[in-house]
Amino acid sequence: SDCKNLLFDKKSPLVSTLMKVYKQETHQLFAKPFTIGGGTYAKEAKNTVAFGATWKGHPGNMHSPDEYIYLDDFYKDIAIYAHAIYALGKLSEWEAAPFLEGHPELVLTSFEPSDSFWKAPLALEIGAGKGDFAIAFALANPSIHLLALERDISICASFAKKAVASGAINLRIVPADFDVVSEELEPFSFEKIFLNFSDPWPKKKHWKRRLTTSDRLLTFSSLLTASGKIYQKTDNDDLYLFSKEEALKAGLPIISDEEDYKFDELTDYMSEYERRFRALGKKIHRLVYSKKKE
Question: Is 238 a catalytic residue?
Answer without folding.
Answer: no
